[in-house]
Amino acid sequence: MIKLIVAGSITQDIILAPRKNEKRFIGGVPVYAASAAKALGETIGIVSKVGTDFPVKNLKVINSLEADLNGFKISGQNSMVFENKYNSRGKRTQKVLSVSEKITFDDIPSVYLQAPCIHLGPVFNEIDLDMIPKVRESFDFVSLEGQGFTRNAEKKSKKIVHEPWINYDEYLPQLDILKVDDTELKSITSTLDLEEAIQLALDTGLKLLVITLADKGAIIFHENVRYDIPAIPTDIIDETGAGDTFIITFLLEYLRTKDCHYSGLVAASAASYKIATSGPIPNHTREDIISRLRDFDPEFKEK
User: Which of 195, 135, 219, 198 is nearest to 171 (CA)?
Assistant: First the structure.
């Protein structure tokens, strides 16, 4: 049985980096989720929509990731297209060039409702907030990528800006996991201080909070316990999708072990492989992920 369903837009990502040629990759949370799952030897179900402008070559990439595609649709004219521009320090500026159709609860195939967990991965408001209570009633475990509810675009430049999530305290208690980076969490809670943002999120009754911090690793909070997860050293080639790789690996390991610290370490190792790889196609396996962890921490023991 499929353990995990992932809902969100499959995107076309334009990557611009200093002293490098422009690159175009298929992207979006479902794609990086399927890639992470494949590396772990798992299969996920995908709920997503792309437009008729979606390149045929990208459909071949999706099929190669061996995900279940019962929830994948070609609908409307436009796909979600992002431009990701990185400076010499790896800081990203994003623009949204086109937007795909909304994803609703009715787009989830009935067969997917048998899965124990769903991860909502909106990247630009393609999932409405009313999806959260609906999936809460249907799935045992609900995870959310918070970025999609904090993003808007400037009209002229199309540059993505972060805005507060006004009624976050109404929805966070309905989740089992919120995954964000530090900037997104501060935006959600309308504060410039990360520690204050963390406390505001936890005060809602949120069960589990995962915060990714790029090259500083990640922080996980569960039942008033903090787990600091280190970043695993690697060559930096393409950081796009690293956060998605982290949370999907974490979810699949946590569903199996219920161990936050262990799952975070495995997720950090998986993310290090993504950062060292251009695009979404995995060139590593679970054995590679565990081996890198043992090299990093000789006392690490696989579960």
Answer: 135
Rounded CA separation 130/128 (Å): 5
Q: Given this model, what pLDDT does residue 296 score?
A: 94
Band of pLDDT at residue 162, cut at 50, 70 and 90: confident
The yes or no reply on domain 4-296 and CATH 3.40.1190.20 is yes
At 88 the pLDDT is 80
Q: How far apart are CA 293 and CA 255, in angstroms?
A: 20
DSSP string for 217-272? -EEEEETTEEEEEPPPP---S--TTHHHHHHHHHHHHHHHH--HHHHHHHHHHHHH
Q: What is the pLDDT of residue 56?
A: 87
Q: What is the mean pLDDT of the chain?
A: 93
How many Å apart are CA 225 and CA 227, to the nearest integer? 7
Contact 9, 103 (CB under 8 A): yes
pLDDT in tens, 55-103: 888 999 999 999 999 999 999 999 999 998 888 877 778 899 999 999 9
Measured CA to CA in angstroms, residue 157 lies from 24, 98, 123, 160 at distances of 20, 13, 18, 9
Q: What are residue 13's DSSP bridge partners?
A: 25, 82
Q: Comparing 147 with 136, which gets the higher pLDDT?
A: 136
Q: What is the DSSP string of 63-111?
A: HHTT-EEEEEEE-SS--EEEEEEE-TT--EEEEEEE----B-GGGS-GG
